[in-house]
């Protein structure tokens, strides 16, 4: 059971714990009034046993370690590395204590003008049999500091690893060229993007030609054709900037947060489709 309090749902165990922590400073009546919970309900809840079990404590510790960005399937996979536990049990525990994964905000893509346009050769086939066979790229905004920044990144669809990225103050062709030139790609690699003007520019076309890269582009106004990199950019923002709800970082802090997250995403953040391994671990084990 949960009740409404201060604009969101509050579990009885959390409310009792909160009152116990605050009643040395405030009266119980004042706390209940502020959180819109009847004082009689508080005393009724207080009589109940909200003591967490050992399993609940372990689940809670994992949720906190991964900043409440993992769903019950990933938490269950981590728990199973140490002990036998059912996925439904983990789900019930996370629901009981409101430890569920936060909902991600969807991002709309705005394609640019098309000059050196090409077809959709990827066709939403997001699986690859070897590293650097298929890659996807995109630019996202970073409006969280005292100036506008843009992140250009390239993902290897073999294991979802971010293999190259650049951060700049302009969403221009130079940014995507800097990202692409950080990679030494094998001949015939397929590189997918949207129809943004930076990807249909002559300079980008020429760079792909020199690298013997096969270009592929999403259909106009269809961001789902580039879903993997869109999902990564959404995860980056939701698990860092949106999670902390602070939007006025210094430029250097924004850049450092992005760098730290990409390192964490590549080396530590497990993915269900990779058998609950991180992209780097998956690549190393497959090698």
Helix content: 25-40%
Stated plainly, the CATH topology of the largest domain is called Nucleotidyltransferase, domain 5
The name of the CATH architecture of the largest domain is 2-Layer Sandwich
User: Can you identify the CATH superfamily of the largest domain?
Assistant: Ribonuclease H-like superfamily/Ribonuclease H
Structure description:
With 287 residues, the chain is an alpha/beta fold. It folds into two domains: 3-96, no CATH class; 134-286, Ribonuclease H-like superfamily/Ribonuclease H (Nucleotidyltransferase, domain 5, 2-Layer Sandwich). The chain is built from twelve helices and seven strands. Strands 5-4-3-6-7 form a five-stranded mixed sheet, sandwiched between helices. Strands 1-2 form a two-stranded antiparallel ribbon. α4 (54-65) packs across α5. The N and C termini lie far apart (49 Å). The model is unreliable at 4-8 and 109-113 (pLDDT under 50).
List strands and helices in order, with pairings:
Blueprint (H helix, E strand, L loop, with lengths): L2 E3 L2 E3 L1 H11 L5 H7 L4 H8 L7 H12 L6 H8 L7 H10 L37 E9 L6 E8 L4 E8 L4 H8 L9 E4 L8 H9 L3 E4 L9 H12 L2 H4 L6 H17 L11 H8 L1
Parallel strand pairs: 3-6, 6-7
Antiparallel strand pairs: 1-2, 3-4, 4-5
């Amino acid at each position: 059971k949960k009740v409404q309090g201060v604009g969101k749902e509050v579990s009885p165990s959390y409310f009792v714990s909160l009152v116990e922590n605050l009643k040395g400073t405030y009266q119980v009546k004042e706390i209940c009034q502020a959180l819109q919970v009847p004082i009689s309900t508080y005393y009724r809840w207080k009589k109940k046993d909200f003591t967490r079990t050992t399993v609940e404590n372990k689940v809670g510790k994992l949720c906190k370690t991964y900043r409440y960005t993992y769903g019950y399937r990933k938490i269950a996979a981590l728990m199973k590395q140490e002990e036998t536990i059912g996925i439904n049990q983990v789900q019930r525990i996370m629901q009981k204590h409101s430890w569920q994964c936060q909902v991600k905000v969807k991002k709309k893509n705005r394609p640019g003008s098309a000059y050196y346009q090409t077809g959709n050769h990827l066709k939403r086939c997001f699986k690859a049999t070897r590293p650097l066979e298929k890659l996807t790229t995109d630019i996202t905004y970073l409006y969280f500091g005292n100036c506008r920044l843009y992140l250009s990144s390239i993902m290897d669809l073999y294991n979802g690893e971010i293999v190259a990225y650049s951060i700049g103050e302009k969403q221009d062709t130079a940014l995507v060229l800097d990202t692409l030139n950080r990679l030494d790609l094998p001949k015939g690699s397929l590189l997918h993007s949207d129809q943004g003007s930076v990807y249909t520019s002559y300079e980008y076309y020429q760079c792909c030609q020199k690298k013997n890269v096969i270009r592929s582009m999403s259909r106009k106004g269809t961001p789902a054709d580039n879903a993997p990199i869109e999902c990564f950019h959404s995860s980056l923002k939701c698990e860092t900037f949106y999670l902390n709800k602070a939007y006025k970082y210094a430029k250097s802090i924004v850049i450092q947060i992005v760098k730290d997250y990409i390192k964490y995403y590549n080396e530590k953040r497990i993915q269900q489709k990779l058998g609950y391994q991180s992209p780097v671990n998956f690549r190393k084990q497959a090698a």
